[in-house]
Amino acid sequence: MLSGLRVLLAEDNPINQLVASQMLESLGASVVLAEDGAEALEIAGREVFDVMLVDIEMPRVNGIEVLRTIRGYSGRIAETPMIALTAYVMREHRAAIDAAGADGVIAKPILSIEQFGADIRRYMGKRSGAARTDDDRAGPAVEAAEAVIDQKIFDALAEAIGPAAMAELMGKISPDIQSARDRLVRARAPCKLGGLGDLAEIRAVTHILISVAGAIGAVRVQELAKQINAAGHHDDAIAIERDMQELLGEIDRVLDHVSTLIAQ
Does 3.20.20.70 match the CATH number of domain 6-127? Predict the structure, then answer.
């Protein structure tokens, strides 16, 4: 579906790098990885790509700035199709992404390799003059569930990236989620005393969890991380502390579940 295309993938999270790269290569694309926005701009300035996939929340230079900067250039680079990857598809986020010059938005987690390829082709067509459409995917609905992992989401990911990549992914998931849990415990400490805590850290870690948890179908962790991330943006220590204990408990359940899967 994407045979012969050169793709610049700007993504800072190792789990998302693995999943997206494996999917793109399975679709026939050649992938060059940029691990943050600054590196993406550096690579884009010296190499030619058919399409750029840009995560919105990245260190050093975020995705919005990457989009704006490239659209502000002259010549061929400014006309390169650029597609935003984000765990947030709410109206205010979408408006900012559109204003920055994205040709489209693909929601994370990416669950269907066929849909991923079709969306990339569709948004590339918009840049080349094809009819515009507003039916951008909002991503899978995320609802609280009793199961630790939504098996349909987990199985869809396994089918999309293949057994070898799935085994590698499972080996990375546990340490990444454990690290996120440890960082949240440290960042929330002042919230328990009525302070705000380290809001920048809370926002950064919950952003990671939204994407990583969503990718493997840990829907309750993803939902709680979204709620805490929003509270962090509004300096709401009460809401952060209200949901944090449940999030930490749900993370422990996911860690136990993943350990069981790895042992099988």
Answer: no
